[in-house]
Each structure stands twice: as structure tokens, then as C-alpha cells.
Amino acid sequence: MGILRLSHVDITVPDMDLAKAYYTGVMGLDITETTDDRAFFKCWDEEDHHSLAVRYDPRVGIDRFAFKVETEDDLADLEKAVESYGFHVHRVSRGEEVGQGESIRFETPSGHEMELVHEVDKVGGRMSKLNPEIPIDLQGIAPPRMDHMLINAEEVGESAKFFMDVLGFRMTEQLVGGDGHQIGVWMERSHSPHDIAIVNGPNGALHHFAFWLDDWDHVRRSADILAYNAIQIDVGPTRHGVTRGNTIYFFDPMGTRNEVFTGGYRPDPDFPTITWTEDNIGQAVFYYEGEVNERFVTVHT
Amino acid sequence: MGILRLSHVDITVPDMDLAKAYYTGVMGLDITETTDDRAFFKCWDEEDHHSLAVRYDPRVGIDRFAFKVETEDDLADLEKAVESYGFHVHRVSRGEEVGQGESIRFETPSGHEMELVHEVDKVGGRMSKLNPEIPIDLQGIAPPRMDHMLINAEEVGESAKFFMDVLGFRMTEQLVGGDGHQIGVWMERSHSPHDIAIVNGPNGALHHFAFWLDDWDHVRRSADILAYNAIQIDVGPTRHGVTRGNTIYFFDPMGTRNEVFTGGYRPDPDFPTITWTEDNIGQAVFYYEGEVNERFVTVHT
Amino acid sequence: MGILRLSHVDITVPDMDLAKAYYTGVMGLDITETTDDRAFFKCWDEEDHHSLAVRYDPRVGIDRFAFKVETEDDLADLEKAVESYGFHVHRVSRGEEVGQGESIRFETPSGHEMELVHEVDKVGGRMSKLNPEIPIDLQGIAPPRMDHMLINAEEVGESAKFFMDVLGFRMTEQLVGGDGHQIGVWMERSHSPHDIAIVNGPNGALHHFAFWLDDWDHVRRSADILAYNAIQIDVGPTRHGVTRGNTIYFFDPMGTRNEVFTGGYRPDPDFPTITWTEDNIGQAVFYYEGEVNERFVTVHT
Amino acid sequence: MGILRLSHVDITVPDMDLAKAYYTGVMGLDITETTDDRAFFKCWDEEDHHSLAVRYDPRVGIDRFAFKVETEDDLADLEKAVESYGFHVHRVSRGEEVGQGESIRFETPSGHEMELVHEVDKVGGRMSKLNPEIPIDLQGIAPPRMDHMLINAEEVGESAKFFMDVLGFRMTEQLVGGDGHQIGVWMERSHSPHDIAIVNGPNGALHHFAFWLDDWDHVRRSADILAYNAIQIDVGPTRHGVTRGNTIYFFDPMGTRNEVFTGGYRPDPDFPTITWTEDNIGQAVFYYEGEVNERFVTVHT
């Protein structure tokens, strides 16, 4: 089956205590492990070791992002595919990286370090696997799981081609300029509107990563929790034209943009790509506002 | 019992056809009557003749607003009270005004024409009074009823005093400056967070009137309908600190600000007034954003 | 103004520890005071001392219910009105009853002990009266406030007449038999669909009291919490035809029926009464099911 | 990739006019084609020719159900797999069946006729593929798409084995008896909690098929529409323990059980199966009620 879904995002923060306080107390994630300079977090309904890793660094930024593949063979196949495309692949052996086994790393055309991983330690979710009960005492925003991420690229089309031709992603939506070149692409492997999006911007930059919420009411509760904790909201609650999902963008206290997201359709490989033209960029990004604010376009980490 | 609730708002528009198209097709109101230069609208769950009257005028503005009183005696008592306060009262006889009977009109300290009315023609709502069914085919936003309005006043405290001492309104919330003077007041008669609010601004101006929605999901549907119809959203979906209700502000195509509103508490006369200090004005007005945008403060009709 | 709203319900339970555990841990109320044989509870958004009083007694039942009046004069006026109607009134002096001042008690035509109270100790709600924030850490169902109650009467029409003619209630809805006699009546003082309902059944019995929820999503969360705590659900989540509100009925572990309720219209004194005919009783009570289950009709306390 | 999702369910009805009236007017589906004795329906967000086919027959029942495969090769591979398992496969050529191309049919161990189809005519959904707008004028329940179905089998374990070993389904949940045998299994191909479920009952029977709703509010609106149209609700609105989704079961006017469903988790192939034990069957099926009603267990078509 190849790539299943976004596995984890590894970011850097200048204040580990603040990061831990925010991602547990406000976002409602669980810490599954800490090391000297790192902390690992997961959502309550996730089974795997972590979906977010935070490392201390004076600079706010992104180390890498990882997608999970179904089998050991998928890992080998994708390794060959990336190398055939002309990119160097670095093997990470079991034991080298916290919470996971054998994996591969390489640089994408947009200059991001990307990881593919097969084995991830199973730590289990909050619901039992035997006669489970719906959890009623979740604290903070408490998204059930990580959903997707958006990275920037100077050449969106080149990056999209790599993700589709080499890694097997399928394009659900695209935003195209007057001359037909791609300004943004939304691609999936998990039968959701997007697992990764690539939008025009500086190579190597992270625009945001997003947590899944179950519904519009959870979006409001998230906004209540953000406001209570004086977290700066970037945009929302609102709706995207792209994906037709509902959303809030906001910044963690160190400066990385987070999103909470819900809704959208459920695409299979036979889903025809949706195209947005540049003159509709406002509605494509923020369907209610009909325009994109400056901060949303210019702030990356 | 005196004043019951906001009865109707009378605005002026430069394009009657556009007004009719918007208030029926987008807002989902019913037209109950039209005359040469006026159109009368009501919400689907309202029984009275109209809650919005629109008159042709080259200028966008407000003619007056009306509150409904319970009895004929209430009308007489309030007439005396207003006159005792030193204001001239104009009697409108049955037959003089469309859709209503005997009423009184006078100018408020803030220079608005206000009306009190007892008799209003009953045209009935969409639900039967005998074994009613929940309506399932409402079109447009279709709020069940008008909820409240916000007017501007140069001297908020003076206006608040008039509404409370003479007309019997109760203050649920106030926004006060550093020296203790009132920048905004929210007052009610209907056991809801507010029937009328007065905020610092030019005398005689209308800031907005608001329709009630039943819940947060109806707020999202309203935003979907507004976006579909390319209606300019001013702010929202968001939450107010004041009233703790959820809201969207937007402009009708002629330029009058509308609101859809839901939520809040249910205050009785023993409800202790909530005070907001000026340094919290952002959270008071827009709880999620934590700041008030320029347009919201400066645009009135 | 007279009667404002349902103030508190006083019930008896055979297990005080269980009652405290349930009404705090599951229902999410706050205990404001305990005495040797009683415990007093309030909802998070209520300002008054209590809306539920629980007394130890081997028998599950109801001691009395109390409505709050606006002024001392209202208390005196209603005292006279009840006495004029031929009923004996018992004065309760300040200091005699926990958490409240001067009040009156009398027996209704249906054999219930009813109380009217003016002074109630203000203990305050969870939200500040100065720059309040939306609470985000409520536990259990946590309704913002008590809403209404339903009592039984052998002669519904006689009881309705007493509540309307003597106490000033207004009838929003009624269920009538083929010969026109009233099987059920819903009456209000607080501009909500009902503060008290009276339905045919044994004199002196309590059918249920109900807590207010803010929306349909809170109804689902309540059901999740009830199921998690193995609380027996009687009916719901569903909708009433009467009031058009959404609801769940369930039993506290001692056997008193509780309800959580939301929605409905906002009636003023000019609201025309809605009539349901007996052949539509199913839809009137449970709009989705279209029928009333045996337990709902026969179990009272 | 093999099987993608449930493609369509083919049922029989004794009244075609009533079926058309219900599936368009109440359920809100679109008719895409009619023949002498059949009608084909799709949901508004589906691109394919139909997800429900209705054929006239004096008896209410099921003709077959079809799953869609990704490629022509998948069809050939699965054909071989089914034949290797010892089952006869019938090839349906392009042109033989309405709205679809080459497909295969065979009988499952539970005696159901099952179809696998690759080519289905694309008729397109309601949203444009170019700068799409959120539809705001959907009528009836209007689910965006078909979701899953539940069939009965005398030997659940044998059927589950066939679906998993031969067709590649993954088991998300199972209900097991005291001796460890499977009473029910829930299986998926589309990364949703279930595409098909098999529960103990008579071979060849259809228990229900289910339409997807986007959220809990759409569940309530569905109930409003069902009640308005006097459609018999079987159970709900409620929640399942299995899948943790929200649901209503009801019968179309001819007698086939329908479901509307929302929620649940998003499982990948690494999702560990959840097990329910028979003593928790009540909570597994109806999480709020904690018990399964007789009709739900005994009525099939």
C-alpha cells in the first residue's frame, strides 16, 4: 500500500518548558517520552509513539517530517524510487531514533528533510481495545489525531511531481496561476482531503501542521480554550474553500503555526482533482472572508 | 410588564429591489406587506406583522426603532414617563402606520427616533398553533426571530440612564473607561443578554441589528449562505466576551450592518451587572480575536 | 414582576453519599452547603445559593419546589392572592431555612408543597463579574442552570387555573382530550417555553426536573457522560413536539427522573397558546419516536 | 489497491413510485437513470452513476451489493482469488448492466450475491470541479454519500474469513461470544470504521445500508425530516459503541432498514482490532441505551 499517513512532525523550539506546557495544557496532547533535549507527544486516539517531536534549539524551525509506510517492503521500494529519482537516501537503523525502528531520510526538491518510517513503537491510545468507552475527561483541545501539514516550496509544480510520481501521492486540489503553473497543491495518501499541501514560498519552510477535530462544535471549544489561554489566533473559526473543511489557525507560544481542522470529503484514487484559479485564491483559502491576510502568506518557520 | 422586546427596526435603502432580494433570498425573511415606497419583513417564527421595515431613500440610514409593550396602559404610562423626563411625545393613531395600531414616538437623548407600540397585526408564524411540526424547508439563513440592536450615542451614560430610569431597561453588562465613564452598555427587557446596546459613537447612528439563531451550527450555515451569495462578512464566525454569544457581522448589499447571534445566558432582574474595563475591550467585543477592527468601530448607518 | 423563575427543587433520597457523588460527579453541580441531613447544589452559572436541595429520607420523593419572586412586595401580594383563593399560607422567616430569607409555603390544588421566596443568598457563579472568561474546565454534564419541572395532578385543569389565575403563569402549550379537558399544560413566567408543566397523574408526584443545556452538542456530551457512568437513560436523545426542545430523560441512581433540555422558542405574554390533541400525544411528547413509552407515563417519585 | 469502497446496493421494492418519492423527497438522493423496472440513485457529493439501485419486485429484498475496485487488474486478480477459493465467478460485460462497465459477480459464503466493479459511469457531483461553492440548497436528508452496509450470516466467522483472506478486508472490530466465536465483525477497505459488517442472522439477508452524514447536527436534522414525513424510526438518534459513530436507524416505506451515520475514527492497516464481548453487546450496538431492541435483531430484508 505504500505510504499510509503523516506520522510525525519534528520541530525546534527555544523554550522546552513552554513547549511542554502548551502542547499538553492547551493542545491537550500526551507526552510519551522525553530525552535531554527532546519531548515526544501524541494525541489521545493515536496508537503510535508520537506525532509531534520537539527539540530544543535557539531557532524556531522544522527538523523534518515523517510519513508512515505499511510494510518493510514499502520502505525498500520507496528507497529505491527516491534514489532512482537521483536523491541521496540516508538509512536510520533501529535504535538510532527514539520511538521508532528502521527508516529512511532524504531531502525533497523543496529542501525539506523527509522521513519514511515503517516500525513505530505502539504505546496505545486512551480507549481500550476491549469493550471501549468514549473518553469524557479529556483536557485542553485534545484532538484525536494529527491530520496533515503544509510546507512551502519555490517550485510547487516540481515538488508536486516528486510527491506524486515518486512517493505515490494523489492530488485532490490545486491552485493555478493565469499561465497554468501551480501555486498550491493538496495531496493525499489516507483517503482524506490532504495529508500534505505545498504552497508557494521559501524552500525548507513549514507553514503549519494540523490536528483533526471531530466537528464544528469542537472548533468552537478549541477557540474558547485558545482565547482562555491568550493564544494568538491567526485566522478563524472559518471554512476553507479548498477541502471545504472548517478551521482555526493560531501560533504556539514559540511561534510555530498550528491548525485545528475538521470536515471535508473522503476521496479515493478515482477522485477527480479540483482546480482553483488564482482570481479565486481568497475563497479557496478562506471561504468566508474571501481574502487571504498578509500574515498568513508571509509567516513561516 | 411594560416593554416586552424589540418590535421592529425601520431602515432606509437606495435600492428596494435589491433590499427585497437580499432580505428574502439571503436572509430568508418573509415579506408581509409592501406599499409604494416600503416593504415589511418578518422572521418565520414571529407572529407579528413585521420586525423589519425598509423604506426607499437615496440615503442608507435608520428612520426609527420600535419596542413592543404589553398593554394599552403600559403605553400610556410610558408616554407620561417620557414626557415627565422632558421629551416631546408624538401619538400615532391606529390606521396611520402600516401593520400596527396606537403607538408613541419620541426622540431619545442620543437623537434616535424611538417608537413604543402595543397593538401589532398578528399574521402568524410558519408553525401551526395546532399539533405543530418542525419546519424542514426553510430557505436562506432563516432566523426564527429578530433579537436586538446596537445604536451609537455621544453620551452613553446619559442614554443608558434614560433607557433604565424612564423605560425600565435593566443593564446586563457595561464597558467602562479608566475614569469610570460608560463606553458601552447592554440592556434588556426580555430576559435575554440584551435587547438594545448603546456604544460610543455619533448620535443618531445605527451600528447593527441582529437576528437570533438557535445554535453554533446555524452560525456556520449562515456563513456558508453569506459566502455563497458574496455578502461581505465584517467579523466572524466568532464569540463575544460581552453576552458570551456567538456571532457573525456582515453588511447587507446596501450597506446596513446585520448580525446573526446565538447563545448567552438568561438574566432575570436579579442578574448582577457584568463590567468590562477598557483595557479588555478587545476580548469584550471579539473574544477570540482579542481586538476590535477599525471598520467595526467606524462604520455606522 | 411577580414570579421570576423556578428557584429550587427539594427532593428526598435514601443515600446521601450516592446523591452527592452523582449530582457532583455525573451532573457536575457544585455543593454550596451541607447540613446534618441535607445537601445543597447549584449549577455553575447560577448566582443563588442552590437550585437543588437533597434531604435524607428512606423514601425517594419530593418535599417541595420553590419559585423566586422579584420583590418583597411580590411575596406579600402573592400571599394575599393564595389566601384569597382559600388556601392556607405558612410564612417562613429569615433564618428558618438554609440559604434563603423570608418565604411563604402552601399546598397547591394538586397536593404539592410549593414555596415562593424572595431573598436567596448570593454565592455567585463560576464566571467573574469583571472581565469574565468562558469556563473551559467544567466536569460532568455541568448544565449552566436549572430550567423547569413537571409535576403530576389528578385534575390538570384545576391546577392550571390556580397557577394562571392566582400565581400569574402564562400557558404556552396544552394537550387536550377529545372532550376538551386538559391532559397536560405547560406554563411559564421566565419567557421560556415552560417553567412548570402539569400532566395528568397522581397528586403530589414529581415527574422530573430539568437542567438547561446550551445546544444539541451538549445533549450528546451528556449522553456520553451518562453512558460512561452507567446511568439508566429513560428516553433520548430526542426532541419534544411540545416546546420543540431537545432532551434526554434519565434516572438518578436513587430513582428521581432528571432531564437535560435545550432549545425551544422565546415566548412573551402575547404568545398564542399551542394546542395538541390527544391523538397526537406521541408526537407531542417524543417527536421522533411518535409514541410515549409506558415507563415515562407510570414512573413518578 | 484492490477494493476501494462500497459502490452500490441493489434492492427490490413492491412500489416503485413510493420508492422514488421517498429516496428523492425524504432521503434527498438524485435519480440518475430509470429503466422499465429499475431506478438508480446517487448522493449529491458522489461522482459515480449510482450508489443505490431499486428494482420492482413483489417482494422486498436485496438483489446484490457491489464494491468498486481501483483498476482493471484488480478485477482480474480478485476474480482469480475468488475462483481459487472455490467459488464460481460470473463476468458481466460492458453494456450488460446499467451505468457500469466490466464487472464480476459471485455468491459469498453467506449466500449473498456480491459484485466487484471497476468502471462506473461518471455523472459528477453537485459541486463544481472548478472553484467550487458549498451547496446551500440541498433538500431532504441529503447525505453526501453512501457509507457502508450490514449483512447477516449464519456463520459469521466463515464469512469474515472470506472477506479478509480473499477480498483483502481488514477487521476493525469484532463481537465475540463466550466461547470465542464471532457474533459480528466490522471490516473496512476505505480507511473508515467499516465498509461492511456481518452479524449473525439468516444467510442472504440485508440488515441495513447506511448513508454518511457530516456531523451530529445533521443527525438531528435527519430526525426532523424523518418525523415530518412520518417515517418509522427504529432506533436513535444515538451512538454506537462499535465505531463510536452517531446514528439513526429507520425503515423506508417499503420496509428496508436505512441508517444515517457519522463519526468514528480513521483506521489504517496498522489499526489494532477492537473486541467486544457478548456480555457488552448492548453497549456495543447502542451505547446510550445499553441494550438491543428485539426489532433490531429480528427484522431483515
Automatic annotation (TrEMBL), chains A, B, C, D:
Provide the E.C. number(s) assigned to this enzyme: 1.13.11.2
Record keyword Oxidoreductase present: yes
Domain VOC per the UniProt entry, residue ranges: 5-119, 145-263
One protein family per Pfam: Glyoxalase
Keyword set includes Iron: yes
- Using the UniProt record, name the top-level EC class of this enzyme in a single word: oxidoreductase
Catalytic activity reported:
catechol + O2 = (2Z,4E)-2-hydroxy-6-oxohexa-2,4-dienoate + H(+)
Which InterPro entries is this protein grouped with?
Catechol_2-3_dOase, Glyas_Bleomycin-R_OHBP_Dase, Glyas_Fos-R_dOase_dom, GlyoxalaseI/FosfomycinResist, VOC_core, Xdiol_ring_cleave_dOase_1/2, XylE-like_N
Which cofactor does this sequence's record say it needs?
A: Fe(2+)
One of the entry's Gene Ontology molecular-function terms is:
catechol 2,3-dioxygenase activity
Question: What are the UniProt keywords, alphabetically?
Answer: Aromatic hydrocarbons catabolism, Dioxygenase, Iron, Metal-binding, Oxidoreductase, Repeat
Describe the subunit structure. Answer: Homotetramer.
Q: Which family does it belong to?
A: Belongs to the extradiol ring-cleavage dioxygenase family.
The molecule here is called: Metapyrocatechase
Query: Which lineage is the organism of this entry classified under, starting from the top rank?
Result: Bacteria, Bacillati, Actinomycetota, Actinomycetes, Propionibacteriales
